[in-house]
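Q&A log
Question type: sequence-to-structure
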Amino acid sequence: MLRREGVEAYPGSRRLLDQLREQGMPMAIVSSSKNAPDVLEAAGVSEYFSFVMHGGIAVERGLQGKPAPDTFQEAARELGVPDAECVVFEDAINGVIAGAAGGFALVIGVDRGAGHEALTQAGADVVVSDLAELVR
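Response status: OK
Response body:
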């Protein structure tokens, strides 16, 4: 279905990904969905990420899912970056809770419907409506 109907990345997200790649930032995706690699491929953004932590890998490695920080921390290890130097971008309440619990440098909530206040209360340091707000 993904290949037939396609998935489109938010333009602001793609702009931020381009900027981060130009700056040489290592990037990973953390998703509870086992089909995350297929979704990234269909959206045309898989090349940005050197590691995809998805539900299948989490189960294989015995990691707790969100709201536990385990999958984010494992992705940071895969990138070779200390948790305290990583930024988490998350649009779900449980993901923000996980990021806040993980000792990361910054948790950015992306309000795609969860609500600015709810993301802030869950532990987001900053909340944006679109990742384009972070592009210089």
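Response note: The mean pLDDT is 94.
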